[in-house]
Amino acid sequence: MTPWLFLLPGLLVTLLFTVYPFVNTAVLSFTDAKVLGGGAFTGLANFSKMLDDPLFWVALRNSALYVVGVVPFLVILPLLLALLVQRHIFGMAFFRAAFFTPVVASIVVISLIWTWLLDSRGLVNNVLSVLHVISSPIPFLTDQTLLLISAMLVTIWRGLGYYMIVYLAALANVPRELHEAAEVDGAGAVRRFFSVTVPIIRPTMVLVGALSAVAAFRVFSEVYLLSGTSGGPAGQDTTLVMLIRQVGTGLSGNAGYASALSLVLFALTLGLLLVTLRLNRSDS
Fold first, then answer.
1. Nearest to 62 by CA among 251, 265, 274
2. Strand, coil or helix: what is 37?
3. Which of 74, 91, 143, 253 is most buried per CB count within 10 Å?
4. Cα 114 → chain centroid
5. CB neighbour class for 154 (10 Å; exposed up to 12, middle 13-18, buried from 19)
6. Mind listing the domains of the chain with CATH numbers?
7. Positive or negative CA dihedral for 17, 22, 27, 33?
8. Which residues lie closer than 8 Å to 160 by C-beta, 6 or more apart?
9. How far is CA 179 from CA 131, 165, 170, 194, in A?
10. CA distance 200 to 217
11. CA–CA distance, 171 with 180 (Å, rounded to integer)
12. How distant, in Å, are the alpha carbons of 10, 28, 65, 141, 271 from that of 18?
């Protein structure tokens, strides 16, 4: 019993804050429960309603676009950044810390700063206007397409430092002997990178792809705050997590429908992870 006694506090926390909420969400997804309680069993009615809900398809499209627009950059750019800052040059530690700072900064503060930068009267538009590049402000935060792209840029900028650290750990495990042997054979820096470095750190690249894809699919704060909580023009930039919050909060919130949406989000996220594991297994 001694090992179980040591595990008991952690198990209780996991059961209370992870397992129970998940099971409760799964149960509520088959009811018409409201936020204030109550609700009767409705079977698959919530999932049927989802198929006929145009806002669900808009949110699903935006979340999918977010993954496509963010993941490639968060797989490649942090790797290039890690290759740059791993050099033992005086002052490089400062740049490592600077690149990592957005990771530990509050997303609310970051979004407010970017809102100030991208507003129609913000710094970016003012600078472009002074340079006579534009004649009228660019609607970064009010145009449906530009708002989503702006939110993607914030996500990429904020994630660079985190994944850079992940890549630095992977690059530290690349044997120098392999690079030296390839250099003796006449391979240049680019050839050594693709022939030696990339094959060794490929599992890490797959891991970064998985983590960034899951995070992108569950994006909320960036779009929510940059749009001023509106989800863009007519809510056309709403993501799945934003839709869940919109449906499931407030005194008249539909907890059953929000739970069904949450279950779908879980299934899609799990699917992404399974695909990633499959790719990782194929590479190995």
1. 265
2. strand
3. 74
4. 17
5. buried
6. 44-283 (1.10.3720.10)
7. positive
8. 74, 77, 78, 81, 99, 102
9. 47, 21, 15, 11
10. 28
11. 15
12. 11, 16, 29, 36, 20
The token duo for 46 is 């919530």
pLDDT in tens, the chain (284 residues): 899 999 999 999 999 999 999 999 999 999 999 887 777 899 999 999 999 999 999 999 999 999 999 999 999 999 999 998 887 777 788 888 888 889 988 888 998 899 999 998 899 999 999 999 998 999 999 999 999 999 999 999 999 999 999 999 999 888 888 888 888 888 888 888 888 899 899 989 999 999 999 999 999 999 999 998 888 888 899 999 999 999 988 777 899 999 999 999 999 999 988 888 787 776 65
How many CA within 13 A on the CB side of residue 151?
31
The radius of gyration of the chain from alpha carbons, rounded to an integer in Å, stands at 23
In three-state secondary structure terms, 250 is: coil
Cβ atoms of residues 95 and 85 within 8 Å:
yes
Q: Which two tokens stand for residue 76?
A: 């490649």
Answer for the pair 182, 195: CB distance below 8 angstroms, yes or no.
yes
* DSSP-derived secondary structure for 56-121: HHHHHHHHHHHHHHHHHHHHHHHHHHHHHHTS--TTHHHHHHHHHHHHHS-HHHHHHHHHHHHSTT
Query: Residue 157 and residue 222: Cα distance in Å, rounded?
Result: 12
